[in-house]
Amino acid sequence: MTDGWDWRPPGTGATAAGSSSAPPPGGPGSPWWSDALADPWRDPMASAAVVVPAASVPGIEPERVTDPDSSARPAVRHLLIISLVTALLAGALGGALGYAFAIRGGTTPVLGGAPIQPPELAQRRPESLAGVAERVLPSVVTVRVAGPDGTSEGSGFIATTDGHVITNDHVVAGATGQAMVIFNDGSVAPAALVGQDPESDIAVIKVAKEGLRPVAFGDSEALAVGDPVLAIGSPLSLANTVTAGIISALDRTMQAGEPGGPTRYYAAIQTDAAVNHGNSGGPLVDGAGRVIGVNSTIKSLVAGGQEAGNIGLAFAIPINQAKRITQDIIGTGKARRTVIGAQVGGGGAGVGVGVRLVSVESSGPAAGAGLRAGDVVVTLDGRPTNEPTDLIALVRKFAPGSVVVVEYRRGTSRRNASVTLAADAK
Asked: Over the stretch 294-350, which tens digit does the pLDDT of each residue have?
C-alpha cells in the first residue's frame, strides 16, 4: 500500500512494504526524493515536521510572499476597538461614582467640574440688595381685613418688639371685623386696631406674638435723589415681594383721598420701585435696610374703569413723619396735626410763584412771626411753594414745635420769618 508517491525508475524492482532501501545513488534530483527518508508518512517514528529546503540559487534572495488573508491587521484593529470601548466604560463608571459621591457629600457638580454649595447655603454680602432683603423680610407682614365690600389686603411692618405694626389708614379703614396679620414664615395672628389718623394715612395695629423682630428706622431727612431703595410688601396678594429702584424725588407734595373720604396731605418720597395695590403700608427701605418711608400712593394711567397699576411713579410717607404719628397713636390713641395758623388760597396772583395767605389766625404761629393776610409765601424751610397743597403738605411734615424759616413777599419786598409750628386744637 502506497500514498501515491511511491514511484520507481524503470527497471527497478519493487521492495517489500516496510523496507528501508533508498533510491539508488545518482537517482533523480527531485526534492521529493532528497528527503524521502524523513517523510513522516513513510516513517511513523519521524518528527511531525516538513522541511522545505531554501532556494540555492546564488545571489538571488527568495521573494517574500504575503498572504492577503492574513489576520495581523484585523487583530490590531480589534485591539484598538477593545481599548476604546474599555476607556469609555471606565469614564462613564468614574463619572457616575463621582456624581454619587458629590451628592452624598453635600455638593452639586456644575459645568467645568467645580463643586459649589447648594443654594440654601449660599451667602450674600449684608450690604447687597439680597442681604438687605433677607434682613428686612421677617419684619414685613401682610394685613388682611374684612370690610363691607369683602376682604382687602395691604402690607405693614413690625415697629416694636411687643407687636405694634405700622400700616396705612386706608388699609384698615372701614373694617367690620378683626384684622389678621400674616407673617413672613406663613404664620397667622389676629390683630387689634390701636388707632389711626386718616389725614396722614397712618394706622397702628397690634398682634400678640413672641419673638417679633422690629425694623430698623432710618432718617428721611438724610436722603438724596438717586439713593437705592427696596419696596417690600404684598402687591396683588403676592406676599413677600421685593422690588428695587431709586429715590426719584423728595418732598413731592401729595393730595390724596377717596371721594367722600378725608383729604390726605404729605410731602412724599417718590420712587421708581415697582409698587402696586397691596404694597400700601409696606416699608420703603434704604441701602442699609433701614425703613425710610411707608408706601402709600401710586400714580397710573387709567381709563374706562381700568385698574391702576405700576408705571414707575410711587410715593411713600417719610418715616420721620410716620414714626412721630405712630408714637402719638400709641401714646394717646390719636395723632396731632401740625398747622401754621393761616388759610391759603390760589397761587400768588400775578407774581408767578408762591401761595397767598387768605387769612391769618390772630393767635396762631404765622401771626406770631409777623405774617399777615395777603403775604405770598415763596418757600418753607427752603422748599418752594407754588400751590396751596405744597404749603399744607410741607407744614404737616414737621412735628408741632418745630421752627421753620418762611420766605415771603409783601408788596415788592421779600422777607424771611422764623415760624414755630403748632398742633391744631382737635
From this structure: 999 998 876 666 677 888 999 999 999 999 999 999 999 999 999 999 999 865 444
Helix or strand or coil: residue 155?
strand
Exposure b/e, 193-215, CB count within 10 A at least 16 = b: ebbbbbbbbbbbbbbebeebebb
Cα first-last separation, the chain: 149
SS3 397: helix
Taking the C-alpha atoms of residue 325 and residue 329, their distance in angstroms, rounded to an integer, is 6
The CATH 2.30.42.10 domain(s) of the chain lie at 338-423
Residue of 265, 294, 220 lying closest to 385 (CA atoms): 265
Which active-site residues does the annotation give? 170, 201, 280
- pLDDT above 50: residue 2: no
User: Cα separation of 29 and 367, whole Å?
Assistant: 155
Would you state the cell numbers that stand for residue 203, as one nine-digit string?
Answer: 394706622
Q: What is the CATH number of domain 124-334?
A: 2.40.10.120
Domain covering 338-423 in this structure, CATH number: 2.30.42.10
Say which residue the cell 399744607 belongs to.
392
Domain with CATH 2.40.10.120 in the chain: 124-334
Cα 243 from chain centroid (whole Å): 10
